[in-house]
Specification:
α3 packs parallel to α5 and α6 packs antiparallel against α8 (262-282). The chain is globular, with a radius of gyration of 22 Å. It is mainly alpha-helical and 339 residues long. The chain has a two-stranded antiparallel ribbon. It has a two-stranded antiparallel sheet with strand order 3-4. The chain has one domain: Rhodopsin 7-helix transmembrane proteins (Rhopdopsin 7-helix transmembrane proteins, Up-down Bundle), CATH 1.20.1070. Helix content is 69%, strand content 2%.
């Protein structure tokens, strides 16, 4: 398993892991290099690049601004003591930081790919450094953000299950440990990329099962966790209520549960929907020529980063508790800031 740039020509200046497939991309998981390399024109300024490249550049700027605003508002909310009564608030406080780091690395990745493909005389050391470091770091923050959101979904399901027996102190203690350990666990599964990524080298890699398994785990894992948590919040809670109040039908309990806890259900469902495009393009088998349908691949790639921009809208806006904490923190900051 090796990562390579096949040559300094613009058509072949990508950094990928796996076997060579001519001008096609083989295996599971498309990177930004794979998607853009045939679209970028060498020695051509950005204004003269294709509309798709210029549109992508504009979208990255918009996404960065949106991600920055989201992270600031989220951090203001979750640093409030009322938001950290249970582990959920601590996961989301960490997510407000990792989401900004993920978006920032995405912007760096996009412009690194664009500028190094446009400038064919880019120094070898810069290409090598970008090849080895940018993609793994981007994946680290993206996967970390996804699993932090999954932790929120799990804790909310546990809260519904235990009810008044839910231990807030234990929840916060577990959250601290997970937030501390999780980055190292994810990094450990990605360290192979730092080892095998190489420039201008090609080594046959008949066995890419590990890389495939890692990608599949980080894409499907949070997907399944969020789905099961959302279903449990609805039906598990309804089942408990049907035992306590047998005079109502199970359907009525489900409807009541949905109305009462809709803010707990919205976030995992939205995260599920936004993760589907990346999951689809990452499971494409065989060789794929992205230049024939660029936005069929680039669109889902961009969409896959939107959860990192929506922490505030998904988790704070539907919650009365978090909105109250946000308003209190915002008012406190505003009173301290001189006009």
């Amino acid at each position: 398993m090796s990562a390579l740039v096949l040559s300094v020509s613009p058509e072949q200046s990508s950094c990928v892991i796996g076997d060579q497939c001519n001008f096609y991309i083989k295996g599971i998981g498309l990177t930004l290099d794979d998607i853009l390399r045939d679209e970028l024109q060498p020695n051509t300024v950005l204004n003269n690049q294709s509309f798709s490249i210029k549109l992508g550049a504009g979208l990255t700027i918009i996404m960065f601004v949106a991600g920055l605003i989201n992270s600031i508002l989220s951090f203001i909310t979750f640093q409030h003591k009322d938001s950290q009564q249970v582990g959920c608030g601590m996961y989301l406080l960490a997510s407000s930081i990792t989401s900004l780091l993920a978006i920032s690395m995405f912007i760096i990745k996009f412009w690194f790919v664009v500028l190094t493909h446009i400038n064919v005389f880019t120094r070898l050391s810069i290409l090598r450094g970008g090849c080895v470091s940018i993609e793994p770091i981007l994946k680290l923050f993206l996967y970390l953000d996804g699993w932090l959101n999954a932790c929120v979904a799990v804790e909310r399901a546990v809260l519904i299950f235990k009810g008044v027996k839910f231990d807030k102190k234990k929840s916060k203690s577990i959250a601290r440990r997970i937030i501390l350990i999780l980055p190292f666990c994810i990094f450990g599964t990605l360290i192979h990329e730092l080892i095998f990524r190489r420039l201008f080298e090609y080594e046959p890699a008949p066995d890419t099962n590990y890389n495939t398994a890692v990608l599949f785990f980080y894409l499907v894992g949070p997907f399944i966790v969020n789905l099961l948590s959302a279903l449990f919040i609805i039906f598990g809670g309804a089942q408990q209520r049907s035992v306590a109040r047998p005079n109502q039908s199970f359907k009525e309990h489900v409807q009541e549960q949905f109305r009462e806890h809709k803010q707990l259900i919205i976030s995992p469902i939205v995260l599920l929907v936004l993760s589907i495009p990346r999951l689809i393009i990452s499971l494409l088998p065989g060789c794929v020529k992205t230049s024939e349908n660029l936005w069929l691949y680039l669109g889902p790639y961009f969409i896959s980063f939107t959860p990192s921009m929506l922490v505030f809208l998904i988790f704070v806006f539907p919650s009365d508790l978090y909105m109250k904490a946000f308003k209190q923190s915002f008012n406190r900051i505003r009173t301290r800031t001189p006009l």
